[in-house]
Amino acid sequence: MARKKGTKSVLVVGLGRFGSSVASTLNEMEQDVLAVDKDPEIVARWSSQIPVVQADMTDVMAIERIDASQFDTAVVAIGDSIEASVITAGNLLDAGITDLWAKSVSIQHARILRRIGARHVINAESDAGKRIGHLVSGNYLDYIEIEGMHTVVKVHTPQHLAGKTIAEAEIHDKYGIVVVGVKSPGREFQYGENDTVMRRNDELIIAGRQSQIDKFLAS
Predict the structure, then answer these.
(1) Are strands 73-76 and 99-103 parallel, antiparallel or unpaired?
(2) What is the pTM of this model?
(3) What is the pLDDT of residues 56-65, one digit of tens each?
């Protein structure tokens, strides 16, 4: 397949809400993306918006016809059939795609995907629900959970730290977190340095374990 300079090629299998969002985003970013769905109506619906082909990826012959082994990355976004999801993921792994992302719909589904070799397993509903829950709580302006126990959040400067520099507040020593950057209203984003002053209405981007962040905000 033709390759745009500086991009990777991505195969997206399944054009439900999750898969179509992934494929559309990659296409808008001008990545080399090809979407696949077995439903001809869905393929027709998306054909004018993203590169798409009709194929049943549980069929090894379909894997060969679209030359799946030539893709750097694959995203298995099938959510209506665990069997189809697992078989498709296995076929793509057998084709030589090692950077495989797969959507799971249950803990058991995720466990199977990991066991057969999926590098990244996403529970789209659970991950989105967790993020929205944190945002609705009112403590965060934004919330991103990183693989493992760490998170990156955006918060307003806590009252007790307003007017202090990062060094004066001893943020890392006291809480174990890192101030990645600070965005003041009407000013450019700046990376967090020891002499960076945190003002009351500033937005702080901080990284650390959830328990450390909770302690930081509760102090």
Answers:
(1) parallel
(2) 0.67
(3) 999 999 999 9
